[in-house]
Amino acid sequence: MAPSNQRRSGFSKRAQYNLFTGYIVAGIGALIGAVLLGISFFQPHLFGGPRGVAQDAASPATETVAAARTGSKSLWDSVSGYYRAGSKNAELKREVELARIRLQEAEALRQENVRLKGLLDLHDEERRPVAVARLVGSSSSSTRRFAYLGAGTDDGVRVGMPVRSARGVVGRILETGRASSRVLLLTDSESVLPVRRAGDETVAFAEGRGDSLLRIKLINLGINPLKKNDLFVTSGAGGYYAPGAAVAIVTELTDDGALARIVSDPAATDYVSVEEIFEPEAAVGARTPIEEELGE
Fold first, then answer.
1. 135 and 147 in contact (C-beta within 8 Å)?
2. 245-251 long-range CB contacts below 8 Å, 24 or more apart?
């Protein structure tokens, strides 16, 4: 049997010397490390120079790593900010819309306060309104033109009292309940109101037509002196209304007068004031057929 080519290291002098040399070098390195460690504990300033050299040598590499880390973080922030921008934008739109609604509500309240102040400022100390209330409904499906007022006899409202808004005459009280009243509007076919043209003594009657217009019929027939956009106001005749309250504006001329649109449209009126009858004795003789029927 032939001898094996592999031999253990113990049979090689060279391998034994190499192993022994390795042990010697490792021991010397451990001893040097222990000595250096002891010196670093007791004399740390002795290694400041080598540490500075090592730090200078590693500084470029650490700066590159830090720049890469900072750049990647900024890129991530940009990407995440882009995706969050949609939700932020939607939230801001909702806030702006809500603020716009609140602003419109505040403007509506301001306008309502102006209208109410206007109603109160229309009267002097001698003629204060009996009541200020809201128009709560109207006879939109009927050929007659009535409105319903949220004030009645408990508030001092009586039949025949004129009703007006901040713009002008609306009508007069036709029937009363304890907490509500029915108003005969100027546009009703049974409504007849003595008027005059503002600025002169051209007198006429404003008769309701059952729609949104009034028929202005001149008392003195002849050459029609009226013009478009003439304003007619109450004349004080009839006893119900005080003179000078706005009634209607001429829109179309006719043979015996004109057609005019009412100044105070009930459809666009919310709050109205109820006034005392201007001349109660004269108003008795100026009752319309529908009022006479209701009185009977």
1. yes
2. 245/162, 245/164, 245/168, 245/169, 246/167, 246/168, 246/169, 247/168, 247/169, 247/186, 247/193, 247/195, 247/206, 247/214, 248/186, 248/195, 248/206, 248/214, 248/216, 250/216, 250/226, 251/213
Indicate yes or no: pTM above 0.70: no
200 forms beta bridges with none
Tokens of 154: 């408990």
pLDDT at 72 over 70: no
Token digits for 172?
Answer: 């007069």
Tens digits of residue pLDDT in 222-281: 788 999 989 999 988 888 998 888 899 999 999 889 999 999 888 888 889 999 998 887
Please say whether the beta carbons of 173 and 185 come within 8 A. Answer: no
Q: Which amino acid is at 199?
A: G
End-to-end CA distance of the chain: 154
Q: Using alpha carbons, select from 171, 219, 223 the residue that is nearest to residue 195.
A: 219
Angle (CA) 260 204 265, round 5°? 30
**Distance between CA atoms of residues 61 and 222, nearest Å:** 110
Beta bridge partners of 185: 171
Query: Measured between alpha carbons, how far is 133 from 177 in angstroms, rounded to an integer?
Result: 14
